[in-house]
Amino acid sequence: MTSTTGQLTDIDGLSATTLLRFATAGSVDDGKSTLVGRLLHDSKSVLTDQLEAVERASASRGQEAPDLALLTDGLRAEREQGITIDVAYRYFATPRRRFILADTPGHVQYTRNMVTGASTAELTVILVDARNGVVEQTRRHAAIAALLRVPHVVLAVNKMDLVGYEEAVFAKIAEEFTTYAGELGVPEITAIPISALAGDNVVEPSAHMDWYAGPTFLEHLETVPVSHDLATCHARFPVQVVIRPQTAEHPDYRGYAGQIAAGTFRVGEEVKVLPSGRSSKISGIDLLGRSVDVAWTPQSVTLLLEDDIDISRGDLIVPAHDAPAAGQDIEATVCHVADQPLSVGQRVLLKHTTRTVKAIVKEIPSRLTLDDLSQHPEPGQLVANDIGRVRIRTAEPLALDSYADSRRTGSFLLIDPADGTTLAAGMSGEAFAQGDEPATAEVDDEGWDF
Predict the structure, then answer these.
(1) pLDDT band with cut points at 50, 70 and 90 for residue 53
(2) 0.85 exceeded by the pTM?
């Protein structure tokens, strides 16, 4: 089990080791998969049979040395094309820390996969080819990392061997990226010059760059602080299923099961159920077949309440003194991930935690221009990989936190109701735009009357 500080614990709460979730991103052919392969190989995290398979595959392609990128490019299409298409997840460990990494694609049309890989990451690695410097895809990935509130960003300036290991090349790229990412509000940026192919500064320090006195890539991963503790955030419990066995042994049992999205819940605590607003107290917490007095994120538990309240999947149980405002008008930033555009007036489904409701895109106030971070006003629609602001009206009240306060309960998905395609990943703004007067109902022949 994993605590939200990144600490691995058993069910009694005893510390085992720390866990870091990180994602790699960058433009195509910048060497993300090679970096990950080098990291796994040099940290001795590759099984013998895996390495032998890579050596055979490399030899069949006429390569003298093993192509370490094949350790992560697992899809047949990726190996044939030499690119990464899907998000490749890998799990490995060193004596100092355990890791879950997401190797995301570099092609522009697969930028949507970076949103998936970085959404739960505490650190994002953005690779830059030292020969090309900061390009549009670099800026796009920096913008996504900033929007997703990833606490730590590593700029890995790769292929330093192809520019003669020149310090001036590295310094220029690091300065340009740091300035751009700083304007986006990225809280922490660490620049490291590397050669993933040769292994310079990946696991072992480089003999070719004595001008660099910082940590190696692995050393930084092992020592970067993972301190964001969701257990201290606003407590939120989205209900996944209502448990009512109605057996002779448990004739009156009524429990509400799900995963704690953030915060801590205790027996005896006064809670409120949203969107109904009904109040009660926690009478019991069941965890892994036993009763406990306290539970915290990301544990999966069953809450028992003192009162019989009409609660169903999608309802949100929160502390009575710390309930988010519920409303039908949402203003948010979205990363558009679908091939079809998102347009003003479009009907969508909005999925927030375990709740899915109908919604209409009322307005698209602006689209972000990545070159200079300016806002293009009233674009009318967003297309694949666009980042923009939207105003949405939902059919039912939703209780969203600000994404700045909670990455789990401040995020949502927009879904095409016709075929279930995910259209956009959204991050709610600082507040909801709620008017003083009730909105006039909008009725159409399909019953979308809100």
Answers:
(1) low
(2) no
